[in-house]
């Protein structure tokens, strides 16, 4: 069976990844960096269901104050004045504490110096100066959003899985890109899915909330747990650098991470679900390079630090200068709750709501009659989402503990204009997968669309920063196809991901970069990946200026790209694109009519739920299904060094189901 996220090779003997832990099992008996935290006994699901609802837990004002006091006490002991941010599980910022002397800004790491960049040079967000509070909030959201009742991931874990090689190290050049390569550009401040801060009133606490910088790869962000239930995250920014860890072979002495680790004491995840206990393709993930033995005696009194060490601050667009209690995930107020039969028939399904009882994305028919002959009907949309959820409910989880848990994820369906036709979740799917599943659905529909090249060519150039139109010619030259990106081929996210890697084929070192990546492989950075970054730089830049100016400059609209509008005025990719697997386009015969995206628990599982769920919906209702075989992107062959390389379409797990020994379940479909 393939590993947790994908199918990277494990070259332990050649690479001697002593610290990365190639091989690994379930992490063995290695000590936990958080100390011994007992794992609660799993609650069995109610009768007639296969999933249990997460227990109702949330952070109180006193909890938040304690977390901040503990973090500030460690920062004082280390002499590193810092900004501390705490969020709840759905991204509400519960408090931001700024210590006296903390830096006002942090610099996004720069791997290569771009100098005087000409149009076409990809500099991305490297070198940008961002508000320190924005960095802290992004780290806190990362810890909260990547974690669940079955896995606890940190911003260091995120660093490990988003770089050009997995695991990242000077000696791993030649391995595939990180399994969640590109996920850092999700939860963006311009996303039309992510909710925005509201001080009060109905719907004030609904999530998922946006992040000012997407997901963070800079260590110093951890999830917070209460009685074994994930309830939020903490983020620390104090050293003036917002970067990533390019070398997993060493153990860093990281002050920001130590401060965050102090903050989560009393709110640590169960030991059994910490990233260090979860292997991916034989490599154990990393939660923290600091341990509880590195910490000073805890300071738990908020009164002792509030004033003498600094104070609570307001952050434009995110928080008031106060402490607020967290919302309980699964409640109407949180914006994510269990569905009613009228909303989605499966009793395990969760949906997004407006905080006042109404679903944000009820199942509906396609809106794209101006572009397709016969749009998806509401009945077809319902069949696709239901069949995909049925596949999800039977699938074996890959990044959850205990072993043989059920997969948990979010499923999104869109039409060819990028309009949402429905979103459904399992109860404990990680929150990050909500925005990502929508990105994936839209990306598959966008790159399979006859209008894709026209859309990219119509995107404004930002001189010296971005040149989105240039990618069209790069793709056409790379594929040897002057008609590429005009709907002649169907692209799943795995296919577009192949073209987005800095080494092509993925991980094989050579002079060729994928045409949607940076042109020179050595110039890759998690802050400059190519088209994915260039599409969103203007909007993210506008938002950061809005935060830094305390609202004096305009915030970004809820659209993450400058591509031309679709008929009717919407953006087809209004929350950016995604470049790791988990989506397929939806067809009626030879005509594109939408896209389905899945995210939450392993990229091969995500592929399977989208591909097999759509196939089963077609069998159930007729008239719809996956792209015809002869136009799938895996029919595209690229000449590389005297040989040909075929793009990929989907990759399903070998034996994925808990209730059926069937193997190769996607083969031949």
From TrEMBL:
It comes from the Bacteria. Gene3D superfamilies: Haem-degrading domain (3.30.450.150). Residues 1-20 form the signal peptide. Keywords: Signal. InterPro entries: GlcG_carb_metab_protein, PduO/GlcC-like, PduO/GlcC-like_sf. This is Heme-binding protein.
